[in-house]
Amino acid sequence: MVAVRRPGSSLACFSAYLALVPMAAVALGAYVLTILWTARVSVSSSRIFPAGDFVGLGQYERLFRNARWLLSLENLAVYGLLFIAACLVLGFLLAVFIDQKVAGEGMLRTVFLYPYAMSFVATGLVWQWILNPELGVQQVVRHLGFDTFAFDWIVQQDKVLYTIVIATVWQASGLVMALLLSGLRGIDEELWKAARIDGIPKWRVYVSIVLPMLWPSLSTAFMLLFVMVVKLFDAVVAMTQGGPGTASEVPAKFIMDYLFGRANIGLASAASIVLLLTVLAIVAPLYYARGKAAQRGRS
């Protein structure tokens, strides 16, 4: 059979591509050119204003000799591991719970997903009040008669990072729940019937069969959570301002402080490029693996 092309199809296709030109131009100017400009500034001796000279990797050497930057990377690594693991586990458990056709499912989905609609600033402020030793949980429990109860992590240098994990997991786990729930609803009901007939325990079905089938949803959730980790700034500023001291310092706050507070755009640009390369190093292989898995699924 010979395919017949409609006369207007080429014009319609051209019009569709033409409509994408403004968006493509904005993306090119706002992202690609900005990244290139940042990379150029990062190899200059720029301070308050951009400089046109070239100092090679000097800014990067200064960056990795900066104790505050190294601490921010360490904090980000600890935070990222705890945040992503907690969100994936809690989101999966919530998705499994709602997938049991529980009563009030629509309301529960809304309740669990609602925190994600809030800004990180609002979340940080709310949790700052909740964790404040003089106003929050500690004070409430002590008023109930437990005078020795202590929950002052937000003012403890060795525990403050965990309070940020608690606040942001509360906000983001609903998103993971929504993504995984859509994946669970796409699993054929016959699989569950076969598992029941074979007498396979339900937990074993989830671990050995369901989780591998949820790989596309899990990888999407992981990428979104990883981007949230790298962008972490609002919640830290709202909750702790990077303190006590620099105990909760993160790279995004380091960049903003050096860009606006210390007027050192060269060092801030170098830090930005390091973060960008970190994201690409993690996300690009994951995208490649997803593409390969999709090709195997179609073949």
UniProtKB/TrEMBL annotation:
Entry superkingdom: Bacteria
According to its UniProt record, where is this protein mainly located?
Answer: membrane
Q: What does the entry list under GO cellular component? A: plasma membrane
Residues in ABC transmembrane type-1 domain copies: 73-286
Which Gene Ontology BP terms does the record give?
transmembrane transport
Protein topology in the membrane: Multi-pass membrane protein
**Pfam families linked to this entry:** BPD_transp_1 (PF00528)
Q: Which residues cross the membrane?
A: 76-98, 110-130, 160-184, 205-230, 265-289
- Indicate where this protein resides in the cell: Cell membrane
Q: Does the keyword Transmembrane helix apply?
A: yes
Keyword Signal appears in the UniProt entry: no
Record keywords, A-Z: Cell membrane, Membrane, Transmembrane, Transmembrane helix, Transport
Q: Which family does it belong to?
A: Belongs to the binding-protein-dependent transport system permease family.
* PANTHER family the record matches: ABC TRANSPORTER PERMEASE PROTEIN (PTHR30193:SF42)
Name of the protein: ABC transporter permease subunit
Q: Which organism is it from?
A: Pseudoduganella flava
